[in-house]
Specification:
Elements: H1 2-15, H2 44-50, H3 54-82, H4 93-128, H5 136-144, H6 146-153, H7 155-158, H8 175-178, H9 182-211, H10 224-256, H11 268-297, H12 309-322, H13 338-366, H14 375-398, H15 400-406, H16 410-439, H17 445-472, H18 488-522, H19 542-556
Transmembrane segments: 57-78, 99-121, 141-163, 184-210, 230-252, 283-299, 311-330, 342-361, 373-398, 418-438, 450-474, 494-517
Region (Disordered): 553-577
Domain Cytochrome oxidase subunit I profile: 48-532
Length: 577
């Protein structure tokens, strides 16, 4: 890996003049003022390896995220297939543990944060009227740290003779210290790279939103998605460096005999405190931008502006502050001081309030609105429903007596997966909503709705079954189950229902991928700069004005668009409810 990085540095320094690839007309901030620049981007692979255009980098983040999502989904389908019956019949328990570890880390670190960075990179500069990110080259570096990080995290699966890491995604000590496989060390190094990447991106977003806004965009009319990205970036700035420090200490314990997390040293609970001080803000790091996506998309198809905009902003900031005061609710069963437990329970219950405010505002926005059940709107409604279920089940876990009974059961898995699937619905809503903008083409609406219904049915089947498994006493992270841990017949039936739901989710993902790729290549062209007919409700935002400018430029330059094709879009609009 080191040789590959050195070779890339030499190639960039000696063979390619990366500074010549800064488009003077597109890049703002410091980069736009450099003496290096020309109007044309390079073509082919060179463009994607050297680009500093925020839109290109957003696409790179998106493609990377789809690849990591595919691996995370494949690993969990193998696990769910294994759980169809009680004994280990398909894979060994060690393989199950390795897939469990890879699934959690991949979807939280390699998919969750990068897919949101894809939207933020592409659309935040457009929404705030900036030419580009404040630091375009740092933006590029932040992305290119991710592929090596993913390879390091997955190294145990494709390097012969090395057993994959089996620490679970939380990497609890002393297990993560005692496992001898070098794959654990490679995974920790890969996680460190992803943390550095996220921190660099957060600094860039903060600088961009503070300094690169157009004159007419002030704090009072800053869009809600940019507010959530700004709050997310603040959370990253204060939490990811702590995770990086904890990872370094764990590496030192594993390789140099230090005692940060050993029983005779700092103690295993020190790791849990450090990890969850990062880990619970991480939940809001990956849920706040999806809330912003829903807050910006849902009103468009309700025919009215977002209800209580200021309260949505204030609740976003409140979540950002309170998220650092709830981490120990993950540790209620560790024997911590009961007085501390009570304080963390109170803050955990309190943080449900700003989330409830957002939910109220979304539902009120739809109330008496002119709803159009397009694919983006369906996924917005799906987000609200899944988020409510995930939030209500989480409130029970905030109660110490309930948590002591349900902790480390499948109830916890069902709860946080409802939240994670809600995040995924917001991502799908964003992809479908902006698909005409970044491709200039339409997706297949029928396939999009098949995708929605299969995804929603599969999600509810899988995670309701897990909720019931938790109530029945099924422990999480178990590769097998038998009469010693509970009613096998009940466990088997519920596991089979959960596996059926997981297959439906997988099928919906295949439909989504086919729809996006096929439509991008062969879909019918968009015939209006206002494809969703937002202007008539006064809901046309800055990114669509940019899209209009791009279309006008294409017509002027003799591109594929022509004034004759700029016709009425009634045939392209979806049904109105």
């Amino acid at each position: 890996m080191g040789l590959v990085l050195v070779a890339m540095i030499v190639w960039l320094a000696r063979v390619e003049d990366i500074r010549s690839y800064v488009p003077a007309s597109d890049i703002g901030g410091g980069a736009g003022q450099t003496e290096y620049g020309h109007e044309e981007k390079p073509g082919g692979i060179t463009r994607w390896l050297t680009t500093v255009d925020h839109k290109d980098i957003g696409v790179l983040y998106g493609v990377y995220s789809v690849i990591t999502l595919a691996w995370g989904g494949l690993s969990v389908l193998i696990m769910r297939t294994e759980l169809l019956d009680p004994p280990a019949t398909l894979i060994q328990s060690t393989t199950y543990n390795a897939l469990l570890t890879s699934h959690g880390i991949t979807l939280l670190f390699l998919f969750g944060t990068p897919i949101l960075a894809a939207f933020a990179n592409y659309f935040v500069p457009l929404l705030i009227g900036a030419d580009d990110m404040a630091f375009p080259r740092i933006n590029s570096i932040a992305f290119w740290l991710l592929p090596p990080g993913a390879l390091l995290i997955w190294a145990g699966f494709f390097i012969p003779g090395i057993a994959p890491s089996q620490t679970s995604w939380t990497m609890y000590t002393p297990l993560s210290i005692q496992q001898p496989s070098p794959a654990v060390d490679l995974m920790l190094l890969g996680l460190h790279l992803t943390g550095v990447s996220a921190t660099m991106g957060a600094i860039n977003f903060i600088a961009t939103i503070f300094t690169e806004r157009a004159e007419e965009v002030d704090w009072a009319n800053l869009d809600i998605f940019s507010w959530t990205v700004l709050t997310q970036s603040g959370l990253i700035l204060f939490s990811f460096p702590l995770l990086g420090s904890a990872l370094v200490m764990l590496l030192l314990d594993r390789n140099f005999g230090t005692t940060f997390f050993t029983v005779g040293g700092g103690g295993p609970l020190l790791w849990q405190n450090l990890f969850w001080f990062f880990g619970h803000p991480e939940v809001y790091i990956i849920v706040l931008p999806p809330m912003g996506l829903i807050s910006i998309i849902l009103p468009k198809f309700s025919g009215r502006k977002l209800f209580g905009f200021k309260f949505v902003v204030y609740s976003t900031l409140a979540i950002g502050v309170l998220s650092f005061g709830v981490w120990a609710h993950h540790m209620f069963a560790t024997g911590m001081d009961p007085r501390l437990r009570a304080s963390f329970m109170a803050v955990t219950l309190a943080i449900a309030v700003p989330s409830a405010v957002k939910t109220f505002n979304w539902m009120t926005t739809m109330w008496n609105g002119r709803l159009r059940l397009t694919a983006p709107m369906l996924f917005c409604i799906g987000f609200v429903s899944l988020f409510i279920i995930g939030g209500v089940t989480g409130v029970f876990l905030a109660s110490i007596p309930v948590d002591l009974v349900l902790t480390d059961t499948y109830y916890v898995v069902g709860h946080f997966h409802f939240i994670l699937m809600a995040i995924l619905t917001a991502v799908f809503a964003g992809v479908y909503y902006w698909f005409p903008l970044y491709t200039g083409k339409w997706y297949q609406r029928g396939l999009a709705k098949w995708h929605f219904w299969l995804f929603m049915i599969g999600s509810n089947l899988t995670f309701f079954a897990m909720i019931l498994l938790g109530y029945a006493g099924m422990p999480r992270r178990y590769a097998t189950y038998n009469v010693d841990i509970g009613p096998v017949a009940q466990f088997t039936d519920l596991h089979q229902v959960a596996t059926l739901g997981a297959y439906l989710i997988g099928l919906s993902g295949i439909i989504f991928l086919w729809n996006i790729v096929q439509s991008w290549l062969e879909g019918p062209p968009v015939q209006s700069s206002d494809p969703w007919e937002l202007a008539e409700d006064g809901l046309l935002t800055n990114e669509w004005q940019w899209f209009d400018h791009q279309r006008e430029t294409a017509i002027t330059d003799g591109g594929a668009e022509s004034e004759e094709t700029d016709t009425d879009t009634d045939d392209n609009s979806e049904e109105t409810a």
